[in-house]
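Notes to self after the Tuesday call (sharing in case useful).
The group wants a holo model before anyone commits to mutagenesis around the pocket. I volunteered. Ligand is BES. Logging inputs and output together so the record is complete.
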Amino acid sequence: MSQQDPHSYTDLEQGITEHINLDLVVDFDSKRIQGSVRIHLTEPSEGILDLDTRALEILSCRTADGHEVPSELADNDPIFGSRLRLNLPEKTQEIIIEFETTDGSTALDWLAPEQTAGRRLPYLYSQCQPHHARSIFPCQDSPRARFRFTAAITVPEGHTAVMAAASTGSHPGKKANTTTFTFEMPQPIPSYLTAFAVGDIVSRDLSDRVRIWAEPEVIDSAAWEFGEVDPMIGLAEGIFGAYEWNRYDMIVMPFSFPYGGMENPRLTFLTPTLLAGDRSLVNVVAHELAHSWTGNLVTNATMEDFWINEGFTVWAERRILEALEGTDFAALHAANGRTDLEAALADFGPESPYTQLKTPMKGVDPDEVYSLVPYEKGFLFVTLLEQTLGRKQFDAVVGRYMEKFRFTSITTEELLQFLEEAAPGLLDRIGVQEWVYQKGLPANAPVFTSPALEQLRSLAEGWDRGVRPGSDQAQAWSTEEWLLYLKALPKIMTIKGCEELDGAFGLSSSGNYEILVAWLTLAVRSGYEEVLPRVREVLTTVGRAKFLRPLYTELLEREELRPFAQEIFDEMKDRYHTLSRVAIAGIFEKTSIKG
Ligand code: BES
Ligand code: ZN
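Result:
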């Protein structure tokens, strides 16, 4: 027996899920899902089959012909959840498990009407990556176990259910005043890519293969913001080969969605904070789209190999941006990524194993060590491979990589072995051992610069000497230029400096959350309390962890602002997504020990 994933009880030697039928009945009153899952194995099996569950009530386990399957639900482990151990009778190929979710389901975010744009109907969405699918249905919740599925989601009349899958229709549900939506996912996916949303959701076609979903109040601005996504698909196909998922749809989530985007196949989930009104944040879509290849088609075997998903995807994201907006634009993104990477490395410290690309994860909750390291260090590693081999040759290697590993989940070592065969000697030349298995950032990391970028940087660094951007100049800056400038300014500004900056450029009233939060972070750190009302506004409307984390961190660094932060957190904590709530509670803890 061998369990191969540090976050799952899955043992593929016991049996392999081939496809599942999922039947979910959503009950907003009890905030529970009544469900059943029919698990079809690749071959008839017998004996022990371990499944992952978390916070599920298991009602029954039966074979296809109705015989009870002996089962045992273990105590909850904080990282793994509860192992559901089945003892399969001889020649069992199909198991049907009935269950109910509970309020401990870490994948589900149940929103009251007031938490939606329409404030009329409740809303439910799932977020399964990395190890939360098990809190919706019992499964082999490890990326190595790929399965196809069909699904039925029954919801109260007036609600729409969408799923990261192909829609196969809808019909009245068994219970009065319900509707059942049905779906099919014909490609084998890892469990973390199962995803759905239920609410007052409408759609608009943006092209013959791209559709945007959102609440009615948001659909116009969403349709505009993402109106030019279709050509990105062709650009990505140029790098990776054919798009395998048929449609590329997107859904704009309510504000509590804890990520910028999530690459659920055929239906990317997006934070509403991308709706800046000027299409300036669509790099997130380029990123999630690129996951259609790097992540969804070729998947990390476990979270120890997460950089395979994210490093390649950030590289692809910037290749798409380069094709659309030019090399200088892509270089700006890379330069800002480098700044963020250095901050993340410093945060972890030089001895931390979480600065390695291959990350040891035994006994570690992946949500607790989520950082930009696998993204940005991974990006630099892939870029170094590209630069060393030359773009044309490297693209050919990437094409073969996709071809060879499509619809599989691989370890870092499998990837490296492939690279060694595809481009002999390349890995040695760049010092692969240090890159992949050691901490920090190797000295041969690629550096991104351009004259425009250097000019911005020296403009910011001259702030204390009275150097200022011309107002016409700054008004024309892109989001990335603003971010570069703000991050290069003195870490602590004078109050007068803050007043001047905000007065000249109206940063506090920016509707672009990237710029707004970068500014507010700097302002709070500098002790500029004028911005506190705006900070409160952000913390009470936005649920994206990327924005909550720095703001709470800076507030809590200042003893006198602790009560302010505490009051907001007390008010909001039940409305934040579990992930954001846990992350922020962690910041409270860390800073109270320090102070
Ligand atoms: N797959 C990730 C989000 C994720 C990672 C969820 C790990 C749960 C666990 C997604 O593709 C992502 O990276 N989103 C970024 C977008 C950015 C890098 C452009 C985000 O949410 O900020
Ligand atoms: Zn990603």
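Two things stood out.
The chain is about 35% helix and 25% strand.
The CA atoms of residues 171 and 482 lie 50 Å apart.
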